UniProtKB/TrEMBL annotation, chains A, B:
Protein's name according to its UniProt entry: tRNA(Met) cytidine acetate ligase
Family matches, as Pfam families: HIGH_NTase1
InterPro entries, A to Z: Rossmann-like_a/b/a_fold, tRNA(Met)_cyd_acetate_ligase
Function: Catalyzes the formation of N(4)-acetylcytidine (ac(4)C) at the wobble position of elongator tRNA(Met), using acetate and ATP as substrates. First activates an acetate ion to form acetyladenylate (Ac-AMP) and then transfers the acetyl group to tRNA to form ac(4)C34.
A biological-process GO annotation: tRNA modification
Amino acid sequence: MKICGVIAEYNPFHNGHLYHLKEARKQTGADVIIVVMSGNFLQRGEPAISDKWSRAKVALQNGADIVIELPVDFSVQPADYFAEGAVSILNSLNCDVLCFGSEDGDSQAFEKAADLYVKHESELDKLFKTTHQKNQTYAHNFNEVLSTYFSNFPLDLSLPNNILGFAYAKEIRKHKYPMAIKTVSRLNSQYHDRDLDSQQSIASATAIRAALIKQDSTVQELKRFAPAGTIDSLESRPVVSWNDFFPYLNYQITLLPTEELRNMYMMETGLEYRFKEKISTAFNMEELLEKVKTKQLTWVSLQRICFHILMNNSRESMSVRMGKIDAVRLLGFTSAGQAYINQSKSKFTVQLISNVNKKTATMLAQDIRAGNLYRLAEKSRIDDQDFYTKPINFIDIKDLN
Amino acid sequence: MKICGVIAEYNPFHNGHLYHLKEARKQTGADVIIVVMSGNFLQRGEPAISDKWSRAKVALQNGADIVIELPVDFSVQPADYFAEGAVSILNSLNCDVLCFGSEDGDSQAFEKAADLYVKHESELDKLFKTTHQKNQTYAHNFNEVLSTYFSNFPLDLSLPNNILGFAYAKEIRKHKYPMAIKTVSRLNSQYHDRDLDSQQSIASATAIRAALIKQDSTVQELKRFAPAGTIDSLESRPVVSWNDFFPYLNYQITLLPTEELRNMYMMETGLEYRFKEKISTAFNMEELLEKVKTKQLTWVSLQRICFHILMNNSRESMSVRMGKIDAVRLLGFTSAGQAYINQSKSKFTVQLISNVNKKTATMLAQDIRAGNLYRLAEKSRIDDQDFYTKPINFIDIKDLN
């Protein structure tokens, strides 16, 4: 039996994702595809456009057999931690192969790059420390190190999907996980294309989100770019964005003393003063980030810091939690997925949680908190995320529509 | 030189307050009237209808010579703590006489009641502990003790202004402050009258607020009940109520783990679970309080607890701060007030702070936090409360109008 793992956010699920899942099944010959998906808050430090349940459902409708929630402590993270969490879960569920989209498309290039990196890690770290420029981003400095050290590094790490894929490959290589790599080339659209091209059926999630949030497109106009399940889901729920949480972030930055803000996870030295100073004249998320931004911080890192403020994630509390993942939320399954779980769960090294009760709630405390906060975007229209929600069973999906 | 102290909230300042200030000056023959006024959050656990500066200005226009902010740690409190803070400030500023409004109107009755109470305090405490009923409010139990112990207690402590006045008299007696008592009978309106009577020129602040918040009266219709300054102030600023802060309270209750909610100042045992459970289905302040309310908790105590949640006031942090008041914010003065301050400040035992800077900000940290949170009701329309605001000088008032 062949088990293929996929790491995703599906924000929202579109035709590019559909193509990827089809290719994953075809190219790996998988019997079961397990998707580890970010929950309600995502890698780029943003809330998901719709909640984890509605996105899991669309994934199951379009080729996934099992959808697992990537714990929020790992989802809102730079590529390395994101990869560490997601790949370790797939390994705990005994995946044989990891399939991801990339700009590069050459699986061997990722394996070779990961091998080179892991073998030379301590020298690269040393070089990074001595050469990194303070007014440059981490990604820029990291690329400089690679191109200085290796005359011909096998991957272009300026491309966002290559960066993520490289992080996955490194995790596999570092822990010697028994997991192969299969990469699928992305079609047509570039990751960050901001405009919808009406001549194509593939658009980037970035372009789709931008169109939805700015409301210059109706959901119906997106039909060309995404399967019916996505359109249904977007029509029946509010489209959530950072601005829905700005009042709470505003309150939290106003309330917390500087010394507490300073202790937030990922807060850069001195940035806490900028937040405290600028908040009184910022009236939305974009204004706040424009005001506090410095040259060495990317927009995405700032969004992540804001998320940690919103969640009250201190450095200490995160370091306690960032160890091995013991339990994850099962979001849904098809009959093939269910059969695989029943047959193999005794060999899994992570607990799959179907029902949240007093006992399991402790294990999922952060994800439950994130789900409750997510509902504050529009409490009356976003359903309970954990205590009263059970995994989606694909057999029931038609009734749910 | 005769200095008269007054303790007030002016929420908003109305004709009853005007009458009180006139009578205070007349009956005590005061050269200077010092008002200690609650800032942005008030004794009943509510935000003020308009900010502390606009209310201080109206007080100066209508008879006060000096307006001092009662620190928020003492303003949002049951009568005893409220009185402790306010009376101690007036004593530190060398007031000769305290003048307050009451239902009773007999100054000697207050002095006699305070004397009786202080002399028998330990026996009364003992009796309270053995007889108090858990499903009754504190006020009810306290009155039961007084009527059991004294056959003919000189004050009716079921009336709200008598309760406050008694608390002031007790403080004076307990600390042997060299301060006389003068009480002025309230005119016409009862403290809690909820309706405006168009045949009268005196209405309760409760009725005025209710009319403003429900927006069934325009500010102009209130002209009969309040001086011009109040009308101007209400017309130029948003009318603030608890519902403006409900989103932040909602967020905070959702965010904080039960064990942190439990540590909030004044949180009753077990109430933290009710807050956590009920918040997910409450969509405004009234709904939330209706859902968490129990028989032994008054609406007012619940509002105070909500305020402490909003301010993140833990039991520990409050107990550290609830000692002697070292510094208070000076909100404004007339020329007579200024002359008194200049002449007597070397004898004051509390520091009057005119300007908030790095050093004084530490002393006023809680009031500054409360002011910043207060602005969140409508940040674009409520001015900075502390860092950029100087005391009102009566000479400038005409220009400010």
